[in-house]
Design a protein that fits this description.
Strand content: 25-35%
CATH architecture: Beta Barrel
Helix content: 10-25%
Distance between the termini: 24 Å
Shape: extended
Largest sheet: 4 strands, antiparallel
Number of domains: 1
CATH class: Mainly Beta
Strand order of the largest sheet: 3-2-1-4
Number of strands: 4
Order of helices and strands: EEHHEHE
């Protein structure tokens, strides 16, 4: 499986270890996050009909507890991997996950 992501955040290891945590989001979610904010604050959502309200409410509820962003994938890279990749916020990346096929048993 191969998916496209956008780097939304790069954090140092919380314990001071030599690795970084790279947070990834789907390109669709990244574009939605960059929409202009409401002048009434980030938790106020405007809607014109009930369908929009329900969709917006579901999206807000899926954001997680304590304001955590929903749909974020995080990976831990050691410093060597991070420097080799040369990642920065806003870069498009592809994440490929594969399961080795076992022969025999």
């Amino acid at each position: 499986m191969k998916k496209e992501y956008v780097v939304v955040r790069i954090d140092a290891a919380p314990d001071g270890a030599p690795y970084v945590v790279v947070s990834l989001s789907s390109p669709k979610d990244f574009r939605e996050q960059n929409q202009p904010m409401s002048p009434f604050g980030s938790n106020v959502m405007g809607f014109t009909n009930m369908d929009d309200m329900v969709k917006g409410l579901n999206k807000m509820m899926s954001g997680g507890m304590f304001g955590q962003a929903g749909g974020i994938t995080s990976i831990k890279l050691d410093m060597r991997e991070y420097k080799e990749l040369g990642l920065s916020v806003g870069d498009n990346v592809f994440l490929e996950i594969s399961k080795p096929e076992s022969l025999g048993v």
